[in-house]
Amino acid sequence: MKLARVLATVLASASLAASVHVYHAEPYITAADSGFGPLIEGAAVDKSGGFYAVNFNDSKAATGMAFPGQALFYKDKILNDSWFNAIRFNIDSRGVQEAYLGDVFNHRIVRVRDPGGSGKFVHSETFCHNPEILQPNDLAIAHSTGRLFLSGMRFASDSAVGDGDLWTCDSNGTATRLGVFYRTNGIEVSPDERTLYLSEAVNRKDKVVSNVIHAFDLDARQGTVTRKRVFVDFKQLDGSESNDVDGMRTDVLGNLYVARWGAGKIAKISPDGKLLAYIVLASIAEVTNLEFAGPKGTHLFAVGACKSDPSRGCVDRYSGSVRGRAFSSLQMGI
Q1: What residue stretches are annotated with the SMP-30/Gluconolactonase/LRE-like region domain (predicted)?
Q2: What is the mean pLDDT of residues 11-39?
Q3: Which residues form the domain of 220?
């Protein structure tokens, strides 16, 4: 019986490998020319297809544009201890483009606005705050309502429920806790805004022993989540449960792209939870986040510390043919 189980596992793994496509990203920003530090994270796209990330000029309080060129986007000059880890863009009801920045240290969301539509984000304010928010670590947005969803984590040698959380901030900036979990990280909304995805990881004796992605039924207007179920269990999917899930993004077809920290690749997963492809990164092993950007919203950018020089932040790019959800929503102004 033991031999039969081993054989079944081998055959299942072989079948999975045969059905999964492997693609390769190319370097876009390398250690030699990077203006980003090793904590590069928070990948985001604006309406024009510009690509952004945090930790610009090695500053935790600074965010920068990475595509089409590197430049400072926003640096907090009010609070010296700001630590931005996430960015999402939105178009408000008046057609004004705004960016939301997740501040890990001060448990808040900062809103930066471009009231003149000139591309100059000149007005900033604390939009949403609650001292009980663990971080936030990453952000997702339902563009139809402007509602934000926040994940956070506390890293412990032995994980416990409460080391991760899920919050929402409504369009008025009111924060509401939706649940507590083991370590939570990646978070994303489906294109129809009816599903919320959230990753959860477990440590035991300093070892990562589990990484799963949950799916919830989502009411984007009310900000409620129900019917929690396991969408992907990486132990069962490909035996990579020890590699943390980091940032996650969806394309317009509903496929979920998942940063596999430490594995140097991105997993592409179908809306029904099937592994479709791996995108192998050229410059990054500890990939932290990803987003679709570029003029057509079809370039998938991934960020993380450079393999060749971990003191710098690298960006790799995979040129596909399907637009990202966020870019498409921003183009439609919703």
Answers
A1: 129-301
A2: 83
A3: 21-332
The b-or-e profile of 88-97 (16+ CB within 10 A means b, else e) is bbbbeeeeeb
CB 240 within 8 A of CB 224: no
How many whole angstroms from its chain centre is CA 245? 9
Q: Which residues pair with 87 in a beta bridge?
A: 101
Tell me the longest C-alpha to C-alpha distance in the chain.
70
Residue with the two structure tokens 């805004």: 193
8 Å CB contact between 201 and 211: yes
Strand partners, 268: 257, 277
For the four alpha carbons of 306, 261, 55 and 25, in that order, the dihedral sign comes to positive
Chain centre distance of CA 319: 19
CATH, residue 304: 2.120.10.30
**Coil/strand/helix, residue 3:** helix
Evaluate whether 76 touches 110 at the Cβ level (below 8 Å).
yes
Amino acid at 13: S
39 near 60, Cβ under 8 Å?
yes
pLDDT tens digit sequence for 270-317: 999 999 999 999 999 999 999 999 999 999 999 999 999 999 999 999
Q: What is the pLDDT of residue 123?
A: 83
Domain count, the chain: 1
> In this model, does residue 11 exceed pLDDT 60?
no
